[in-house]
Design a protein that fits this description.
Order of helices and strands: EEEHEHEHEEEHHHHEHEH
Strand content: 15-25%
Distance between the termini: 35 Å
Radius of gyration: 20 Å
Helix content: 40-55%
Strand order of the largest sheet: 3-2-1-4-5
Number of helices: 9
C-alpha cells in the first residue's frame, strides 16, 4: 500500500499567515496568525501586512509541523498560494516556499487561492463531499464568483463581479455605520435582531450571471447620509434594522444569481466557499433554498471559510497526484486568473 503524501502548505495572500500539514486528504494541523494592527486603519494596509508575514511565517510553520507530529524530513512537497492577493504578502509565502523546497529537496506546488477555497470541501472529516459537476458560490472580500466544477482540476467561472465584491460591500457598509473592521461579522451580529425589510436600497440590473455591488454601496451611503441630515442619531437609533436590511440586500443578490445559474446549467449540487460563506444569513437562506427545491448543499466548516493553509494543502494534494509541480522561476501574481 502506497503511503499518502504529506504536504506542508503556506497561505499568505492577505493579512493572515497560515501553515498547514496534510496527509492524504486529512488535515494534521492548521495554524493561523492574524494581524490585529489593521483594525486601527479600518482595512488591510499592504506594507504592514507583508512585514507581519515576514515576522510570522517561521513561527507559524514551526508550530504547524510540531502540532502535526511530523518531521521536516517526512514532507513530500510544499504548496503555497501563487495568487490572487496582495503582491507583497504573496512574495513572503512564495519566497519561503522556494527556499524550503530547495533546502529539503522536495517539489513545490503553486496554488490558486480561489480554487483552494472551493477544494476545501474535499478535506476528509467524515462528511459527504460534493459530487461532480457542482456549482460553487465563491464569495470573499475581493471576489464574488459562481464556478462550475467538473473535477478537481477542471473549473470554469460562469459568473463574476464586474466591479466590487460582496465582502467589500459588507466592509464598506460597516465603515459607513461606524463599525470596526472587519465589518462583515459585525453586520451579521447586529442584523440578527433587525428587520430585513426596514430599509430598501438600489438593486443592480446586471444581465446573466455577473454581479455588481458598486451601485448598492452608493445607494446605502446616500440613504444613510440623507437620513443623518434629518436626524444625527439615525444610525444609533436604527443600527440593527440597517444591518439587517443591508445584509438582506447583499445576500438576496447572491442567492438570486445562484438560482439563475442552477436553471441555466441544470446542476443541483451546490457549495459555498470564501470568507463571506461564514455569514449566518447567507447560510440560512441557502439551506432554505436547498430544502424547498430539493438541491444538495455543501457548507464548509467556519475555519475553512476565511483564509487558511488547509485549503491550500488540499488543492496542493490534488496537484501532487497530477504531478503538477512548480519550479524556482515561479512568480506570484496579484491578479492570477482562474
Amino acid at each position: 500500500m502506497t503511503k499518502e503524501p504529506i504536504i506542508l502548505a503556506i497561505e499568505s495572500s492577505c493579512d493572515d499567515t497560515s501553515a498547514a500539514i496534510l496527509q492524504g486528504q486529512k488535515i494534521l494541523s492548521n495554524i493561523i496568525a492574524d494581524q490585529q494592527i489593521h483594525k486601527f486603519y479600518g482595512g488591510v494596509v499592504p506594507e504592514l501586512a507583508s512585514r507581519a508575514h515576514q515576522q510570522n511565517i517561521i513561527p507559524v510553520v514551526d508550530a504547524a509541523i510540531k502540532k502535526a507530529n511530523v518531521k521536516k524530513e517526512d514532507l513530500s512537497a510544499i504548496a503555497f498560494t501563487k495568487g490572487p492577493g496582495l503582491l507583497g504578502s504573496l512574495l513572503v509565502g512564495s519566497s519561503f516556499s522556494k527556499s524550503f523546497a530547495l533546502g529539503m529537496n522536495i517539489p513545490m506546488i503553486a496554488v490558486n487561492h480561489m480554487q483552494g477555497h472551493i477544494l476545501s470541501h474535499f478535506i476528509d472529516e467524515g462528511k459527504p463531499m460534493p459530487k461532480f459537476p457542482f456549482l460553487c458560490l465563491t464569495v470573499s472580500g475581493g471576489h464574488t464568483q459562481i464556478v462550475r466544477i467538473e473535477s478537481t482540476s477542471n473549473m470554469q467561472v460562469i459568473g463574476t463581479t464586474i466591479d466590487d465584491a460582496a465582502g467589500e460591500a459588507f466592509d464598506k457598509s460597516a465603515k459607513i455605520l461606524g463599525l470596526p473592521y472587519p465589518g462583515g461579522p459585525e453586520i451579521d451580529k447586529y442584523a440578527k435582531k433587525g428587520n430585513i425589510h426596514a430599509f430598501e436600497f438600489g438593486k443592480p440590473k446586471i444581465k446573466k450571471l455577473d454581479f455588481s455591488f458598486s451601485g448598492l454601496k452608493t445607494s446605502i451611503l446616500y440613504k444613510i447620509q440623507n437620513n443623518l441630515q434629518k436626524n444625527p442619531k439615525f444610525i444609533e437609533e436604527n443600527l440593527e434594522d440597517l444591518c439587517a436590511s443591508i445584509q438582506h440586500s447583499i445576500v438576496n443578490i447572491l442567492v438570486n444569481k445562484l438560482e439563475m445559474a442552477i436553471k441555466i446549467t441544470g446542476i443541483e449540487q451546490l457549495a459555498i466557499a470564501g470568507g463571506v460563506s461564514a455569514n449566518s444569513y447567507l447560510r440560512s437562506e441557502l439551506v432554505k433554498l436547498a430544502k424547498e427545491k430539493g438541491y444538495q448543499l455543501y457548507i464548509p466548516k467556519f475555519e475553512y471559510c476565511t483564509d487558511n493553509a488547509a485549503m491550500i494543502a488540499i488543492a496542493g494534494y490534488f496537484k501532487y497526484l497530477d504531478n503538477d509541480f512548480a519550479n524556482q522561476c515561479e512568480t506570484p501574481s496579484a491578479r492570477l486568473s482562474f
